[in-house]
Amino acid sequence: MKKTLTATLAALTLAVSAIATMAVAADKPTMGVVVKIGGIPWFNAMEAGIKEEGEKLGVDASMIGPTSADPALQVRAIEDLIAKGVDVIGVVPNDEKALEPVLKKAMDAGIKVVAHEGPGLTNIDWDFELASASGFGEAHAKLLAEKMGGEGEYAVFVGSLTVPLHNAWADAANAYIAANYPKMKLVGDRYGVAENVDDSRKTALDVIAAHPNLKGFLAFGSQGPIGAGRAVEERRLVDKVFVIGPFSPGQGRALIKEGAITGGFMWNPAEAGRVFVRMGKLLVDGTEIKSGMTVEGLGTIEPDAAAKDIITNNLVTINKDTVDGLADLGL
Q1: Percentage of the chain surpassing pLDDT 70?
Q2: Which Pfam families match (predicted)?
């Protein structure tokens, strides 16, 4: 009898514990962040930030990285998250227009939507940026002009011709150069290859062959500087052709030390991952996003409520002096 009672009490204890665990899990907000492409260092770092902050804030947060930078794959991933009934969807868009219908579907289902690198999206609660489009583009343009001596031919890479922010950066850079350095000449059209290192390398080799007087590449998209840098290295054009753009320091460390990549600016993708979760948690908790509030990773914000944008400037310089420290942070 005593053994039976003991066994019964033990079973009840386990059952209560299981029910409590299930209740905690049910109360835990769920979030899925759909990025442009999986498996590259930039988004690997972002995923680490998402998971870290999710554990810290008690959010079941994960990242979904499609196998290629295809907007249709992002739409499919968002559809899956809607079907799962997550509380928050985050997105780094490849094509804003292609995602608007599925993001509207998410919002109609009561799901909060947070974007990054999508300042033109409308079917969202908020988009956050760690750099303004004009400031980011102009910073790279100034560095390229300085290295090229204010004259000569240059080419521009973007992730694709539909990635909104890459093209906004390129627009700002080209406008700044045209207004301030009339002896600098853009060759060709912009090339949508900078999310793929092999495409960037091959295109850079082709551009170099077609334009023997080329002096620079302005590459927006984390694989663009890597591919262009490899092409410059192969053609032994270090200190003759300058490669400027944002990239993952750990991936480009050797190239920048050799001079095949000249430098660039970035923000911390791991911090962007953490901000995704912080913003999602604020929205789930019903916290009003307002002027003057402080959001860790963004600082004191001045949100544009009409455009649903939060634009900050948190640029980090990448050069020979800083690359080791940044790479050692896992970036």
Answers
A1: 92
A2: Peripla_BP_4 (PF13407)
